[in-house]
Amino acid sequence: MENDTLEYLVRDYFDGKIDDIQMFELIKDYPFEEVKKHFINAMEIDFLLFKKYSNINSQQAFEDFLVEIKSKEKKKKKVRHNYHKIWFKYAALFVGFIGLGLVFTVLQKSNATEATLQISDEAANLYLTDGTVEKLKESESSNILDSDGQVIAVQTHEKIVYRPVKEVESLKYNELKVPYGKKFELEFSDGTLVFLNSGSSIRYPIHFVKNEPREVILKGEAFFKVSKDEARPFVVNTGAVDVKVLGTEFNVSAYSEDDHISTVLVSGSVQLYDSMGPNDEMGQVKLLPGKRGVWRKGDKDFKVDDVDTSIYTSWVQDKLIFRNTPFSEMRKKLERHYNVSIINSNEALDKNTFNAYFSDESIEEILEILDRTYGIEYKIEDNQIIIKYSKAPMDKK
């Protein structure tokens, strides 16, 4: 019973239900080794997803924990934003820079930023065959009509489902454009599912023609679950690279501002083609599950490597996972995801690599995590996030 009580105390502390001073009072009469065991177990539960990426010194973290909370025993607790839970869940993910002792220390630090971000709430736009533009309201449901007034699809919140038809003779296209800070889901008339990421667009036929390839044009990033149809291969055209499949799940990232186009295969198989180069074996590559194919605009050839596919598809579940990610790339993903602008003139920081996991945090909470964990100070000016200073250790290249 005693151990069960201690386990709940430690869990409540990690969840922010018990503050530092209360925790010290509650555990001081328990055997040291028992407290240590439950503390470390709770760490491992919270960080399970990232255990293979982390190298946390649990012994040192526990000792730091005791030192820090004991030093606060007689201090008066101030009312602050509840970042406590966020810190325990995420701070140790920033591998290589911190121990939990630092977490307790920096909890006393606050970024004195008074300005607030005003994030515009733009709507996704659907461009119909006749040139009509529909502004899609995520809180509503509506029918999507063609030029003859016939219902071709139904929008329900952040998803559009196109109605299947038996046969069509010619192709008619719609185009969906999703602004930064938003995502949208499509279900084509053949049952294929598409998850369109922030700042992306896709042009596609409202119905596919029998015995002809199902071709769509993507700018930005999307995750596809393609309905199998051997008579009609599915082709994603990104301008420089074509992705050809029969039935599979994969992610394509082809933002115009990036220096590469990447395809990550979750299941099935895909064939990548250099659409601008010669039609030979040198200009194509086949991917198997768990592989990533990268086409760099400067090199104009494909490189294939093994990856953890969940890192590249986590955005579909509103999660962001960074593994050894340069800050320049991390900034870019945060800008798209939250529809914000992040300015950084520190080239060394941009090259530094980070590990992190975010799910339901706001951009303000993420900025606080970066500030408190790495000492990446910022200010908000003219509705932009400007990196002022970083105390983070820089990678030595």
Which descriptors would you attach to this protein?
397 residues; 18-stranded mixed sheet; three-stranded mixed sheet; 25% helix
Q: What does this 3D model show about the protein?
A:
By secondary structure, this protein is of the alpha+beta class. The chain has ten helices and 23 strands. The chain has helices spanning 2-14, 20-27, 32-46, 58-71, 84-90, 100-106, 309-313, 327-338, 347-351, 363-374; strands at residues 124-127, 133-136, 141-145, 151-156, 159-162, 173-178, 184-187, 193-196, 200-205, 214-225, 234-237, 241-245, 249-254, 260-267, 270-274, 284-287, 291-296, 302-306, 320-326, 342-343, 353-358, 376-381, 384-390. The strands form three sheets. The chain has an 18-stranded mixed β-sheet that branches. A three-stranded mixed β-sheet has the order 20-23-22. Strands 19-21 form a two-stranded antiparallel ribbon. Strand 11 (234-237) and strand 12 form a beta hairpin. The longest helix has 15 residues, at 32-46. Residues 47-56 and 72-113 have low confidence and may be disordered.
